[in-house]
Amino acid sequence: MRAVNAVNGLEWAADAGIVGSSYLGTGNIIKFGSFNSISAGSSSNWTSASSGVGFAEDGRAGNWNAGGRGVAGIRYFTGSGYHYGWVELIYNAAADSVTVDRFAFESVINAAAITPNVAPEPGQVASSFLLLAGITGYVVLKRRQKRSVAKVV
User: With 60 as the cut, is the pLDDT of residue 113 above it?
Assistant: First the structure.
């Protein structure tokens, strides 16, 4: 697990954290998918980065290791309300690093921000093509078997 460094005024959408953990006891950053709404109701635990929020690697709050790319919900208090936003992150557990790919904030105070379409990792695309090729091969095989049975009868 990796803790996130403090950033002035930013809060992360997080889960309740790991009970008894001094490292991530205040929350694990929630991993959102494409086209999710980020608003006050997105998280019951909006947590500042300085309080020890981090990335869970055990499937809690969305597994950041599964593909590595995801979107985190963020908000910033302006004095009269919150600006909600998102940040697309690439989390590399092996290198213990986080890369910010892009981010945005809603310009209207207290309005929900919608997460972008999250681009899949190259490995996910390749595995999808392999799965599609396997399904296609299975369908072709079944059709051939059906034709062979029809000719015999």
Answer: yes
